[in-house]
Give the backbone structure.
Amino acid sequence: MRTYLIKRILQGIPVLFALSLIIFFVINLAPGDPLAGMMDPHITSEDLARRREQLGLNESIIVRYFNWLKNALRGDFGRSMKVGRRPVAELLQERLPNSIILNVAAMLISWLLAVPIGIFSALKQYSLADHTITFFIFIGLSLPSFFFALLAIYIFSFKIPIFPIGGMRTPGAPFSILDILYHMALPAIAMGFLGIASMTRFTRSSMLEVVKQDYIRTARSKGLTEKVVIYKHALRNALIPIVTIFGLSIPGIFGGSIIIEQIFTWPGMGTLSVKAVFSRDYPVIMAVNMFYALITYLGNLIADVLYAVVDPRIRYD
Amino acid sequence: MSRRFLILCLMLLLVSSIALAADGPEYGGRFVDTEIGDWGEMFNPILYEAASDGDIIGLVFNGLVQYNSNLEIIPELAEKFEISEDGLTYTFYLHKGVKFHDGHELTAEDVAYTYTTLVHPDYTGVRGGDFLSIKGARDFRDGKADSVEGIKVIDDYTIQIITEETDSAFLAALTIGILPAHLLKNVPVAELENNEFNRQPIGTGPFTFHEYVSGQYWIGKAFDDYFLGRPYLDEYMYRIVAQSSLPMLFEKREIDVASLLPDHFKKVKELPTVKPFTSPRFQMLYMGVNQKSPKFVNKRVKQALLYGFNREVMVNAIFKGFGEVAHSVIPTVSWAYNGNMTKYNFNQITARKLLEEAGYNKLDKDGIRMNAEGQRLEIDFLCYQENTAITKVVELYQQMMKLIGVEVNITMMEFNALLDRVYNPDGWDFYIMYWGLTPDPDWSFALKSDAAWNDVFFVNEESDLLLDAGRKELDQEKRTEIYYEWQELVMQELPYYPLMFPTAATCLDVRVHGYNENQGPLGLLVGPEGTLYNKLWIPKAEQFRITQ
């Protein structure tokens, strides 16, 4: 296991290098630059040329890449070219926790609901309850998230004003965790419910597959109670693929949902990255992308390791 | 209940409501303004780039001069100013006792520091261009001089600025906010952009920079020592909101003011708690016309393709009437707008006639015009995809051109890609975009032959001469004449098709008083005496409102 881990981690290094090269070239070769959109009667071409020179945008792309790499390896991702010239690391530190708390809350909501519903639905396959659940899942899968979010605001912030319409803190109020939780409830529920649909389907099909297996029949023929058969034998096996999904959804915890963030004015990673892309804020785009690349790689690794932990048939030697 | 008693009650109610209304301004309360999108987090008047940062800077800083609602430049930090006979020397007499938010007094040194920094060789912003017309500024920027010759501090309250040549746009540049020299003069200019000051600025304005939460809100606190009098409001807040939530926020009375999309506006203005306003803005929707395109060698083609487009329909169908058909590149609200020149009112007959005169008098099997050489009249139109209304305009244009036998091919691209594309004159005829304009009618930045933003390749000596003359002339009446002539020329040559001047639709909560009801293009918070930030007030009884 240890050698496997070391091997996997070492493999990651060239992958990240290659990715950084590709991302850097793609974003820098895309038309425009951080100053292109600044059309203003008071700004002269001379001013813009000076600024490009100062920001190092006039250097060749190869020189720029190696400058970036040199600094990045030392842990310096530079300063944003569009957000107050602030250090990129500081921006990520500011936005990342906002995204993480929202995503974790949403994930908890969807997992805690989806797994039991999925199991229930599988055990009662083709019953009225199963059909009803499947019906709602299809609605959930086909609803666009912006519509769902707006509907949630309209009902729970406007018609029945339980939650705030948007934002993360009550303006002017002192910082408090309760206040943040209060603001987080609705976006987390909206995001969580959107996640339920696919998770339920996944659990259901995984469970259905397991209950058809021979060892379940064996368990039953041994005379074990239905409870033991389901919860001890079937469920544990059905959860194996779900563990993979958990590993794969780790990057999602750090990522931002652009639509949910925008509608709920939640200052997370989604709005930061989209703004960076549209304004060609190169240092921010690079840092965000490299961070996601790293997290995705680690998420995959964790999924593989967890797989070995829960499934004794899998060994990495 | 007797009728007499009822009448008495009614009268009492009437009297008390009159008494309430007659009360003067009351102190206290928080005004909630709105921002869509996000801030650029550079709250420094000489370094900011994002317009949203400019909104906050406007509350925290003052310039020497400011615009009023009639678009005249009036004194602000300067009590008065004089311009010498030759139009080169500006003398500003500063208000005495103007305090920065840290209690330090503003003097001419602060003004000198701000303007000198703007032309400093290490200055890292893009707002220095206008200040290079100060005498000696270029030498200073190029490192040939140690100071700017044309910036002269006479005494603590008097400063003289001498320009190289007369420049009618120069005074407008002095609306820029004045920085506190005592806090910044020891910061190397190259490092200024990384200084903490930019996220915790100190100015002389009516509100102090109190609390900023990234991506959420900003709160300004009333500055007790504001030189024009403490604001009535206790707090001025900017809140980041989602456009989709605006109608709900108005109905729940969580915000006081916002600009709205036409559909939202029609809904929100019916609320009893809201006052609706519409007014023109200094903005223009236009089509750039590639002057290097071989299809436009004959001027008649350019004219025909504008005559054939029904812009009234565009304004009403796509923008729901929130706009005005543009007949010039200078907005109707400007003093320089010429109402008596050639107008291209929708006329298909004229359009067809012009195209026939230009030689496109045959039709192919699809009904598209051809010239004698059999070339079809096909037009390449570049459009950006981020704005759905714009996309609809282009599609409408395409349909209307079909009716006069012109085929329009639309290329959709990302906005940045479009900006990049237009500087190469090959392979396109039109692009579509907005220009955000300033109250001054000068167009040298885009329509002079050598201008930075001349992306339509408009080269015209007569136009250049007129633009230069307009820029050098200080007398408004003479400038008006110059710009009348220039507009006529532009509408003959058509480097741009002006399409529309949009109308801003704003709603304001009825609890707010002290704004300018007869707003000009600068909005509700600018009056004939300048900005009204310290004049806004909310009656005591309505100050309490839960804002989330």
Notes: Residues 95-310 of chain A form a domain with the MetI-like fold fold (CATH 1.10.3720.10). Chain A has a mean pLDDT of 89. The CA atoms of residues 119 and 204 of chain A lie 6 Å apart. Chain A touches chain B through 52 residues (CB under 8 Å).
